[in-house]
Design brief:
Blueprint lengths: L1 E3 L3 E8 L3 H12 L4 E6 L4 E9 L2 E8 L20 E8 L3 H8 L8 E7 L5 E7 L12 E5 L5 H4 L1 E2 L2 E9 L2 H9 L3 E7 L4 E7 L4 E4 L1
Parallel strand pairs: 2-5, 4-10, 6-9, 11-12
Antiparallel strand pairs: 1-12, 2-6, 3-4, 4-5, 7-8, 8-9, 11-13, 13-14
């Protein structure tokens, strides 16, 4: 179950140290080849996109060999031993006002600006709270507000529909309290280690990505 009372699911972030190789692997698993997303100037990364529902997408992100070497690379993806569903984002309107409203109960990090150059030569820009990764997993989502009417899911190839987003953690109650402070309700299960788990509707069976 994924129930967002005010914020809306924007995207899932699947990180890898090799974007091209991971897009090939996901094509086998999900049945579609990710659309080319573009570059994140100054972050040292580029991405591929798969639409997974109305105005929602899976972002596959990896180090960009065409950019100058950047340290640290966003999300520490150059150090990942294997591709991983590393965090997720929810979309809201009027980001700064929302952040002020939920403070001090929710610690979402500072609001910053970001951008990406598309293959068509345009620039997408946004405001976001800096992702907070704990023990290598961003279980608590970051918040994003797009500065343009165009949403990345609109131009991404259509993939399998997301049917569930689940969180696993040794202390589900702790994670539940943090999500409540963001007005989010997400399935949380006891797990030996922190993990995000996405379930997609495949042609013949459900597909799990973590």
């Amino acid at each position: 179950m994924l129930c967002l009372r005010e914020p809306l699911l924007d995207h899932l972030v699947y990180a890898t140290s090799d974007l091209e190789a991971t897009c090939r692997e996901l094509e086998i698993r999900l049945g579609v080849r990710a659309s080319l997303g573009g570059q994140h100037p100054g972050r040292g990364t580029h991405n591929g996109l798969i639409s997974i529902g109305p105005n929602a997408y899976l972002e596959i992100i990896g180090p960009d060999p065409l950019q100058p070497e950047t340290r640290p690379v966003w999300f520490g993806i150059d150090q990942l031993p294997a591709p991983k569903l590393i965090t997720w984002a929810v979309r809201i309107n009027n980001l700064e006002a929302f952040v002020k409203e939920i403070l001090p109960n929710a610690n979402v990090g500072a609001v910053k600006s970001g951008s990406r150059n598309t293959p068509e030569g345009t620039t997408l820009s946004w405001r976001l709270t800096e992702p907070q990764l704990v023990q290598g997993a961003g279980l608590i989502p970051f918040l994003i507000e797009w500065n343009s009417r165009r949403h990345p899911a609109d131009s991404a190839i259509t993939g399998p529909r997301l049917v569930q987003l689940r969180i696993e953690h040794p202390d589900p109650e702790l994670i539940g309290k943090q999500l409540n402070s963001l007005r989010l309700e997400v399935a949380i299960e006891q797990g030996s280690s922190p993990a995000l788990v996405a379930i997609f509707e495949g042609a013949n069976d459900l597909i799990e990505l973590r």
